[in-house]
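Agenda item 2: NAP complex prediction
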Amino acid sequence: MTVTAATELTERESALLAGVPTGLLINGEWRAAASGKTFDVEDPSTGRVLLTLADAGAEDGAAALDAAVAVQDEWAATAPRERAEILRRAFDLVTARADDFALLMTLEMGKPLAESAGEVKYGSEFLRWFSEEAVRSFGRYSGNPEGTAQILVQKKPVGPCLLITPWNFPLAMATRKIAPAIAAGCTMVLKPANLTPLTSQLFAQILLDAGLPAGVLNVIATSTAGAVTGPLIQDTRLRKLSFTGSTPVGRRLLADASNNVLRTSMELGGNAPFVVFDDADLDAAVEGAMAAKMRNMGEACTAANRFLVHESVAEEFATRFAAKMAGAAVGRGTEPETKVGPLIDAKSRDKVHSLVTDAIADGARAVVGGALVDGPGYFYQPTVLQGVEPGARILSEEIFGPVAPIVTFKNEDEAVALANDTEYGLVAYVFTRDYARGLRMANRIETGMMGLNAGVISNAAAPFGGVKQSGLGREGSLEGIEEYQYTQYIGFPNPDNA
Ligand code: NAP
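Presented output:
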């Protein structure tokens, strides 16, 4: 399998890139880094440089937090309706430029255009959802059980937040944090991933165009994440850290955040089991497997990482799944026929390959795939592995690539034990025609989310998040805004007794 040599950027791609801000956004202005340093952003399907951005240092990080702190009180005092309408305008502006956002994501991240278009819909929906939540965030008023006192409860913005996002969903991971923070009345410093910061840059400009006041959102792309965010996390003016990324980095940031007892939201790694029972609709299970495995080339925290299949249907499932995987065209995301784009970089691709070669060395068999793809860019063949033994490294680490290891089980108890045999607990998928069994699995699997006969369940209206070492807190839904609020209680004597 070979991917053909790269062509030059098209006129449309060049024009789009020319409109992406390249500075740091601090207090409403795009500016160069204090050091004058820059870093390059590359296209993972060709390795060519797309744009060069200002590279924030610690001094810029401090300026960004200064700006967020300076406007926090004024921003918190704005009417919820005003904040809601900024979000709604931003939703309309992103929607109007949906094709631009999709192309930009494909260029910097690699996923096929159709998938990028899907992310624009999903990611922008957080803007609309939280524009609606901004005006529906209520407290409560009640008496105590003794009848002697009154209890007034109100929700207040937590204050300035540091938001750190990963490279795999460049728009959605940003809107899932920024929209509820705006709705709640918090100011922010956003540090996007250095591999895919361009979408955040363009999105930040959209928010300014939608009327977001200067200083509410500050964006500091950097090639030295820890050096820039470390001092911010130790600054007592910061009140909240919301992080999406890997569990090892999340653990470290949680430890750092403990010094100032920061509020934290942690959306971390996953190791999703995909359980297929003997009574499953196999066509639906194979469709679901393709979606749960191949969305984002497998580079999703929600990606199915372990296929646990009842022994009586394992052969049939593997054959049908492998046929679909073999038919998924690998190529650059900008090419219309592409179903599988490149992985994000050489390191990620090499890690995927080492997991596959280890599994094969331990006795697994590649039904399809199992090799690197020649050509520029970091492509990997869609791969199905059968005969993977429980305990294999590929079953305990996030694969983050288009590789599906299959393990068989004999009964429900064994399926549950295998599903729970991981430090992660983000999402699980279960395919069965028996809904009682499906709901029983939800009770027995330690997971923050479960797809029942569904391979993709992300939605702005649903509470997204994990248990165990997959994280803390929820994004989206009713819970999402609460991550950016604290609860204040005011007690006073019952006026009837005065
Ligand atoms: P990552 O390496 O943990 O990086 C995530 C973010 O943290 C990036 O912005 C990165 O900056 C920054 N970062 C890295 N080291 C840091 C440090 N010492 N101090 C402060 N910031 C630091 O993860 P990734 O490779 O970008 O993303 C993939 C991971 O994210 C996977 O584990 C995936 O499961 C997880 N993920 C989880 C969810 C969820 O909702 N649960 C969603 C998507 C992804 P640089 O880019 O500059 O390194």
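Discussion summary: The chain has a mean pLDDT of 97.
Owner for follow-up: CH.
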